[in-house]
Amino acid sequence: MNNLYRIITIFITILFLVTDSVTAQESYYDLSSINKSQHLANEATIIEDPNNELSLDDILKEKYHFEKNDISAEIPYLDFTKSTFWIELQVENPSSEELNFYIETARPLTNEIVLYVLDEDENIIEETITGDDYPFESRMLENRKFLFDIHFSPNKKYKLLFKIKSDGEIVRLPIHFWSIDSFSQFTAKENFFLGFYYGLFFLVIILFSLFGLSLGQRIYLYFVSYVLALALFQLSLDGFSFQYLWRDSSWMANHAILMFAALSMIGMMLYVLKFIGFDDSLRNYKRGYFFLLSLLIFSLLISLTEGVLYAFCFPFLNYLSFLCILYILIGLIIKSKREQRIEIPILFAFIALAISSVIFILSNINAIENEFLANNSLKIGSATEVIFLSIAMVGRYRRTQLEKIEAQEEAFKRLEEINQLKNEQTEKLEKQVKERTQEISDKNLILSQQNKEIINSITYAQRLQQAILPTPQELTQELIEAEVFFRPKDIVSGDFYWIQSTKEKVYFAVADCTGHGVPGAMVSVLGNNSLNRCIKEYHLNDSAKILDNLTDMITEAFSSKAISVSDGMDIALCVWDRKDKLEFSGAFNPLYLLRNNEIIEFKGDKQPIGKFENRKAFTKHEIELQKGDQVYLFSDGYADQFGGPRAKKLKYSNFKKYLIETSSLEISNSIEELETKFDKWKGKEEQIDDVCLLQVRFNNID
Question: What is the pLDDT averaged over residues 339-360?
């Protein structure tokens, strides 16, 4: 009995070992059976690491609490996720020849892919790291897809471990074994198709950019912006943008798809809004439209972030984009029903895009198990959409041109009518013009004669004004050394300079009357005569009392019950005792004393000669003269003149600088230089006021 029990035990053990051996043999996929290409994901097992904490050693020694899951689909779909996935596949090469395959895995947008090739004893033969988190040059093969060139030695068994990580994007995990020839043939066909696809986008962008520039319409800018962003989105989705546009920027590789997806949707929403032009009857619809547009802008902003918010943006923007497409379709249908007019190309464009989006989503979640649709449904839909939208834009361009032609024809008819009416009016006007021309000619002759008489009168007034002004000989005779720079703005001047003398004293002044031209000149004559009366008639010799008396005389002259006149003058008045004493009083205008190359300013009282409230007696300044002192009396015309490189006022700071610069010259040369500096500053600017500057030198003071 014991022998029988032993025999049964041995038999069961042998049977178990044989069965286990067969099972072990079946768990290795025979690579020699692959003819051209084969998906082997359904031959593998998958381990999800949601916390991204497992290492290779943990996987090999099964130090984890997650379950291994067998894969049933050829291309597994794992939804939007930030988990790390480990895929384990056992293969063997039972043949006597080395086998070489390209292994394709993950989508071009995956952040990190690590492939470990291990032998039967789980020793690492080869380790390759790639993904969008690494520069493009780190890839084993120069290709937009993630490809691994792996050689399998004869009569060997291998364990392949794939570590795949995403930052929130949809994870699809093909494990596609390609023979070298098959991959080359497939790539050639695929590139031929993609060349047509992206060529369409390039043609549309160039063509409608030219339309937009020629017509100057914003809608073409929106359309081109949308197509450009859509093209960049597809280039990023296919991996071309990382390969050709930003090879060294992992940040752009990771963020480009969300950025351009959001930008393309924003461009599409703006374009549709401009093209359809939803009116006020769709006010509530437009509110929803702008709400979706604001969500797209929000998506664009968070697409630039990192972490949880960035991962959230992937599903949010996918669902939001699909909702926007449906919302546009609903708006088109509502508008078509209300206006009894259908924008058929626009409607077909968004129907095609909506259908392709649904197929793309269903293919991604393996509801439709078709690799071609998963990879190309969105391309077909977007290409169809761009074609129909281009047809719509060409139609719009054609309508615009027809409207222009109709408008030009209408304008031409209107122009003919206007020309006919114009000819009739021209004949009538020519007759009237001849009559009026003669009238104007007669009136011009009269005006010319009157103007000549006025100019002659003012010129004569100039002679009269010059007659009452001191001559250079009178100035020099009384003041020893004196020169004046006198330039009226008009023919006659509101500024004047004055000198009077007695045996004991010399009186001299510079005054600036209200206004310029004829009105100012009339006031200047009154001021000149009044000053003469103060000396000759009233025998005043105190500078302050002279100004007080002058004020009374001017105020009385301009007093009238019928008319109120507030004209007067600003003045700087000096009384010289012919030795070393100089008195000065001023109404607003100051006196500059230049001594030892420095200017000492004596300010006048802040009240004019003439009507003024709160009138006070004028102040007298007594100055002890020294040999070489120079005295300047002036109006404000010099310092207030506009000119220079920026057409600004000269100002008193520059005026003082000019006085110091010219003070060492002979007095006649000094005045000439001051006049030259004034003209240079003024340049082409108009003279804004009368200019009067009196310079007196006291070189004979003991």
Answer: 70
pLDDT tens per residue, range 39-59: 888 888 888 888 888 888 888
pLDDT by residue (tens digit) across 389-408?
777 777 766 777 777 777 77
| 149 and 242 co-located in one domain | no
Give the separation between CA 43 and CA 87, rounded to whole angstroms: 10
- Average pLDDT on 517-536 reads 86
Long-range contacts of 58-61 (CB under 8 A, 24+ apart): 59/86, 59/88, 59/161, 60/118, 60/122, 60/161
φ and ψ of 95, to 5 deg: -80, 175
Mean predicted lDDT score pLDDT of the chain: 82
Asked whether residue 442 is domain-assigned, the answer is no
| Mean per-residue pLDDT, 222-237 | 83
Pairing of strands 569-576, 581-587: antiparallel
Q: Indicate whether 527 and 671 sit together in one domain.
A: yes
40 Cβ contact list (under 8 Å, min separation 6): 29, 89, 91, 175, 176, 177
Cβ proximity of 145 and 104 under 8 Å: yes
The span from the CA of 296 to the CA of 28, in Å, is 49
Structure tokens at 568: 């007067």
* CATH code of the domain covering residue 573: 3.60.40.10
Residues 6+ apart with CB under 8 A from 161: 56, 59, 60, 86, 87, 88, 89, 115, 116, 118
The residue among 161 and 6 whose pLDDT is bigger is 161
**455 touches 462 (CB < 8 A):** no
Read off the CATH number of the domain in which 262 is found.
Answer: 1.20.1070
What are 375-386's pLDDT values in tens digits? 666 777 777 777
Say whether both 245 and 160 belong to one domain: no
**Count of residues making up the chain:** 702
* Candidate from 78-92, 237-251, 371-385, 471-485 with smallest mean pLDDT: 371-385
The interaxial angle of helices 371-468 and 344-364, nearest 10 deg, is: 130
CA dihedral 358, 359, 364, 366 (to 10 degrees): 110
> Percentage of residues in the chain with pLDDT exceeding 90?
30
Q: Show Cβ contacts of residue 583 under 8 Å, excluding neighbours closer than 6 positions.
A: 542, 543, 574, 575, 576, 620, 621, 622, 623
Number of domains in the chain: 3
Residue 352 tokens read as 């095609």
Give the residue numbers spanning the domain of 80. 30-178
